[in-house]
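Example 9 (inverse folding). The structure is encoded as follows.
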């Protein structure tokens, strides 16, 4: 099991930053949602310099998809969107999918339908699909399985899927691939 760190962000004042001073702190999502409650701001303004603009300068427990600028508002929006994702979809898979969807959080609405799991290889996934498709007579150990072209089947269905190397998206070293379907299932 992966360890899930609560998402948090180092939020700093841009006004202070531009004055060569690093003013900010690590906050959980509730703190980022309401900077006044943290003492960083009063009435939305930096207590040090009065600036209204704050920036997320570092994050933990969440990764911003698409490499976009992470404002406090978009951090909160992203954490909220991630919170609705069912637990069986790994965080890294969500990031991969969002990356592919250019960071569009609306794309998370159908992620549960699209996500086909975490597999050692795409071939492992396609083998399982073939067995589902062509019945238990194809299951490993059956004589028929020897005559079935598993590789050709994998090549045939590959274009209906998008496949991500887990190691490209995990915070920790992940193995295998995340498989998503590009076509509506059912
Ligand atoms: Zn400031």
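The amino acid assigned to each position is listed next.
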């Amino acid at each position: 099991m992966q360890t899930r760190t609560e998402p948090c962000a180092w939020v700093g004042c841009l006004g202070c930053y531009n004055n060569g001073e690093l003013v900010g702190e690590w906050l959980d999502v509730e703190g980022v949602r309401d900077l006044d409650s943290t003492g960083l701001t009063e009435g939305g303004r930096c207590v040090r310099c009065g600036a209204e603009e704050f920036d997320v300068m570092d994050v933990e427990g969440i990764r911003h998809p698409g490499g976009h600028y992470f404002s406090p508002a978009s951090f909160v929006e992203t954490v909220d969107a991630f919170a609705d994702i069912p637990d069986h979809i790994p965080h890294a898979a969500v990031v991969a999918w969002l990356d592919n969807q250019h960071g569009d959080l609306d794309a998370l609405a159908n992620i549960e339908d699209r996500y086909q799991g975490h597999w050692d290889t795409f071939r492992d996934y396609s083998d399982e699909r073939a067995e589902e498709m062509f019945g238990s007579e194809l299951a490993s150990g059956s004589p028929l399985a020897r005559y079935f072209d598993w590789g050709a089947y994998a090549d045939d269905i590959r274009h209906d899927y998008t496949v991500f190397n887990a190691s490209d998206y995990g915070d920790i070293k992940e193995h295998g691939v995340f498989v998503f379907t590009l076509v509506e299932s059912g």
